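Quick bug: Co-chaperone protein DjlA output formatted oddly.
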Amino acid sequence: MWGKLLGTCFGFMFGRWVGAILGFWLGHMFDKSLKQNFDKVGGFQGFFSGDDLHQRQALFFSSCFAVMGHIAKSNGRVSEIHIQAASVFMDEMGLHGENRQEAQNAFRAGKSADFQLKEAISDFKDVFARRYDLLQLFLEIQIQMAFSDGHLAAQEKQLLQKVSQYLGISATHFQFILKRYQAEFSFRQQRAQEQSQQNGQQRSHYQQKQPPSNEGTFSKSQALAVLGLGNDATEKDIKRAYRKLMAQHHPDKLVSQGLPEHMMEVAKRKSQDIQSAYEFLKKAS
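Here's what came back:
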């Protein structure tokens, strides 16, 4: 406990939000190691190996949940839907025990009235400035939180635009990312509905001896939108967009750049959506 407290205080004194977050993480690791043997993990030398990978992962983790909490409270109060969405997100990441508690603490910090969004994002960008794919994934996660209730409120969109601006993402590209996520959200819902219908038809087939229908419920234009393309896209455009998006969301690459391993599922799910849309387009051509 004392390690976390002192680490956070000293970190904030020397590095504002980024210092506080890193100080909290180092304090947590120090407290945790005291229960074992601090020397066995290499002392403080262990924290600064691998281009400070662990520090970057800790910063991404804490900043992500803090900004999620701030966006969830954009309407003045955090709805049960947003709380449930954050909880489901933690479940998908497999967060339990101390890791889940740290995520909840960061989420609550983001909800506080004195949370400085611009300062927090600026500190985050300073660390990840040369890792554009991670900056974009960070924004996509915040968009996912805003869409947790199925629609995007005006206040939420304004906050997302600020986050995008502070990350150094242009207004044009923000609209592109937002539109692509909306298509991804719709595509994912329709694929789930299609799967549910097929399962129901298969059960009916066994009961009534009738062949199930394989007719899809989503369109080529929706699959193109998942890849960020319009209806006039050529086969070459589709392949180029697919390869670019798959490279941007490759889980192993993102983890090596600072994405927490717990968040690999986010990148995997996005890769699966991109892959599904591409496969659908190949069959439709």
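Actually, after a second look the formatting is fine. The longest helix spans residues 171-208. Closing.
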